[in-house]
Amino acid sequence: MARAFDAGGVDDVHVSGEEAGEGPRAFGFEQIADCGSMRVVGLRLEPGQTVPEHRNAIPVALIVTGGHLHFDDGTQSGEVGAGQMLLINPGERHTYHADVTTSAYLVYAGLPGVRSRMWTLRRKA
């Protein structure tokens, strides 16, 4: 996994329930946008919540917009804070959890079944 530090002022993600006036759900994923080859999903975790270990078939960019997300891929572990990004390569097993209320965008890049490439992180000169 690679990590970049400035996601550029992304707004907080709030996943709300079906009923009007209901606050954010304690654990939530909400698809925000889909253009076929790319999908944006909002994630919200309450303190102590964990996303179980899993793998993705396509590359994922996880951009934290509020709080702190702890990640572990079996060989590396760390923390990503608001305004930071975690890049997850196809096929990597990973899990994450929150100690504080945390929100993020997950950007899925590519199409299932199409050979994906590893993330390439470009740095400004």
Keywords:
0% helix, Jelly Rolls, 125 residues, 6-stranded antiparallel beta sheet
Q: Helices, strands, pairings?
A:
Elements: E1 2-4, E2 27-34, E3 38-45, E4 50-54, E5 60-66, E6 68-72, E7 77-81, E8 85-88, E9 94-98, E10 102-109
Antiparallel strand pairs: 1-8, 2-3, 3-10, 4-9, 5-8, 5-10, 6-7, 6-9
What does this structure look like?
This protein is an all-beta fold. The chain has a single domain (2-15, 25-109), classed as Sandwich (Jelly Rolls), CATH 2.60.120. It has no helices and ten strands. The chain has strands at residues 2-4, 27-34, 38-45, 50-54, 60-66, 68-72, 77-81, 85-88, 94-98, 102-109. The chain has a six-stranded antiparallel β-sheet with strand order 1-8-5-10-3-2, with no helix packed on it. Strands 4-9-6-7 form a four-stranded antiparallel β-sheet, with no helix packed on it.
| Fourth-tier CATH superfamily name | Jelly Rolls
The largest β sheet comes out as:
6 strands, antiparallel
Overall pLDDT confidence: 76
Question: Class by helix and strand content?
Answer: mainly beta
Number of domains: 1
Oligomer state equals single chain
Low-confidence stretches: 1-26
- The order of strands across the largest sheet is 1-8-5-10-3-2
| CATH architecture identity | Sandwich
Q: What is the approximate shape?
A: globular
Query: How many DSSP H or I helices?
Result: 0
- What is the rounded distance between the termini? 22 Å
What's the Cα radius of gyration?
Answer: 14 Å
CATH topology: Jelly Rolls
